[in-house]
Amino acid sequence: MTQSERKNTAIYAGTFDPITNGHTDLLRRACELFDHVILAIASNSKKNPRFTLEERIQLAQEVCGDKFDNLTIKGFNTLLTDFADEEGAGVLIRGLRAVSDFEYEFQLASMNRNLRPEIESVYLMPEEKYAFISSSLVKEVASLGGDVSSFVHPAVMNALQNSLK
C-alpha cells in the first residue's frame, strides 16, 4: 500500500456500545473527507459493554452499513495502532464533544504517535445537537426508563429496550 493510500484510509474506532447519532454524524463527516473509512468496533471487555462485539457490529451495520459507499465495519481486539497497520490506515479519527474530552484525547494521541509515528490522529466535532450525547449516558437514561429515541437509530432503540427486559 502506498503512503498516499494510507493517508486516504481512516479508522474511526471505539466501543460503540451502542452506536449513537453523534457517532454517525462523525462517521458521515469522516466519509466525506477520506476515500475509505473503517468503523472499528473494539472488543474492550474492560468497559463491560451491554452488547457483545457481534451485536455492536450488527447494530452498526443496520444503522450505517448502506449509507456510505466508502465504509467498512470491522471488529477488533488488538492494539489500535496494530489494527491500523494491518488495515493500511494512516489516520485515526476521534471525536471531540467538549473541552473535557481534550485531555484524554491528547494522551491517547501522544501514545499512538509514540507507538506508530506515521499514523496521524484527526479530530472531528459533532453537530452541536449531538455534543452532549455519549453511549454511557444513553444507556443510563434508557435503563432508568427515559426516552433516548432522538439520540439513537430506531434499531438501537429496539436493541436497548430488549436488553433491558
From TrEMBL:
Q: Which annotated residues bind ATP?
A: 15-16, 23, 95-97, 105, 130-136
Specify the superkingdom.
Bacteria
Q: Where is this site: Transition state stabilizer?
A: 23
Its pathway, per UniProt, is:
Cofactor biosynthesis; coenzyme A biosynthesis; CoA from (R)-pantothenate: step 4/5
Record-level GO cellular component terms: cytoplasm
Cite the InterPro entries for this sequence: Cyt_trans-like, PPAT, Rossmann-like_a/b/a_fold
Its function, per the record, reads: Reversibly transfers an adenylyl group from ATP to 4'-phosphopantetheine, yielding dephospho-CoA (dPCoA) and pyrophosphate.
Organism, per UniProt? Leucothrix pacifica
What are the protein's GO molecular function terms? Answer: ATP binding; pantetheine-phosphate adenylyltransferase activity
Compartments (UniProt record): Cytoplasm
**Keywords, ordered alphabetically:** ATP-binding, Coenzyme A biosynthesis, Cytoplasm, Magnesium, Nucleotide-binding, Nucleotidyltransferase, Transferase
Return the protein name.
Phosphopantetheine adenylyltransferase
Recorded catalytic reaction(s): these are: (R)-4'-phosphopantetheine + ATP + H(+) = 3'-dephospho-CoA + diphosphate
Cite the SUPFAM superfamilies for this sequence.
Nucleotidylyl transferase (SSF52374)
Any single GO BP term: coenzyme A biosynthetic process
Ranges for domain Cytidyltransferase-like: 11-140
Give the EC number. 2.7.7.3
Q: Where does substrate bind?
A: 15, 47, 80, 94
Q: How does it assemble?
A: Homohexamer.
Q: Which family does it belong to?
A: Belongs to the bacterial CoaD family.
Required co-factor? Mg(2+)
